[in-house]
Design brief:
This protein has a seven-stranded parallel sheet, with helices on both faces. Helix 1 runs parallel beside helix 2 (50-58), helix 4 (89-100) crosses helix 5 (125-132) and helix 6 runs parallel beside helix 7. Strand 2 (33-41), helix 2 and strand 3 (62-69) form a beta-alpha-beta unit. The protein is an alpha/beta fold and 239 residues long. The chain has helices spanning 15-28, 50-58, 75-82, 89-100, 125-132, 146-159, 178-191, 208-218, 229-236, and strands spanning 3-8, 33-41, 62-69, 105-109, 136-140, 164-172, 195-200.
């Protein structure tokens, strides 16, 4: 695995924290890691972006950002409102490919969901992943409604010839309800790909030292961790 694209079923579901956990687990496994954020929206120059947050939590990664737009909107809309040039999939692919020549693993974190528009041509993160021939890791919420959004994301990815590595739950509650516990079984079917991890709710608020020590416990071996999907399902099986 050289380039891994991290997307999600929506916004504010834990993509950045999952990206940080994957980076931390890879670093702990002795890999060199770069994190690329193609378009950062909702922040002004000098403010800490998602790639910076990954570096803060995960440790010594190369953090890169291609463009930044102040309005908290989809990248195409935010670029238009800022009067700035948008980021196209070719630029994303070129930057990721260059980072891949210098690192063992490159994580490309998208904005929002897979089909959020990057430019006025309607280009999305999916086009960048296709140009890179890179698989998708889909970050999902645990709660009611996640199965439909997960299935739609996976279907859209495969319709574009993209591989879905698996899903990771971006925030697992301390006291999950019936829907969350049932979803531990049903997410695999919805995604057509394995559940590869679950981060505890609030993981991003841990100290960097605690985060790095715990990250491998949240992710499966395919993601450089030691999380056990079968044990997780057994622990939280619905009665």
């Amino acid at each position: 695995m050289t380039v891994q694209v991290v997307t999600g079923t929506g916004t504010e579901i834990g993509k950045t924290v999952v990206t940080a956990a994957l980076a931390a687990a890879a670093l702990a496994a002795g890999r060199s890691v770069a994190v690329l954020k193609p378009a950062q929206t909702g922040l002004r120059p000098g403010e800490r972006g998602d790639a910076d947050e990954v570096a803060r939590l995960a440790g010594p990664v190369t953090a890169a950002e291609l463009a930044r737009f102040p309005d908290p909107l989809a990248p195409a809309t935010a670029a238009r409102r800022a009067g700035a040039a948008p980021v196209g999939p070719e630029e994303v692919a070129e930057a990721a490919a260059k980072l891949a020549t210098e690192h063992d693993l490159v994580l490309v974190e998208g904005a929002g969901g897979l089909l959020v528009r990057f430019d006025e041509r309607g280009s999305t993160l999916a086009e960048a992943a296709r140009l890179l021939a890179a698989p998708l890791l889909v970050v999902v919420p645990a709660a009611l409604g996640t199965l439909n959004a997960t299935a739609l994301t996976a279907e859209a990815a495969r319709a574009r010839g993209l591989e879905v590595t698996g899903t990771v739950i971006g925030g697992w509650p301390e006291q999950p309800g019936l829907a969350e516990r049932c979803n531990t079984e049903d997410l695999t079917e919805a995604a057509g790909a394995p559940l590869l991890g679950a981060l505890p709710w609030g993981a991003g608020s841990l100290s960097p030292e605690a985060f790095r020590a715990a990250a491998p416990k949240w992710l499966a071996s395919e993601l450089y961790g030691r999380w056990d999907a079968a044990k997780f399902r057994e622990t939280w099986a619905a009665g």
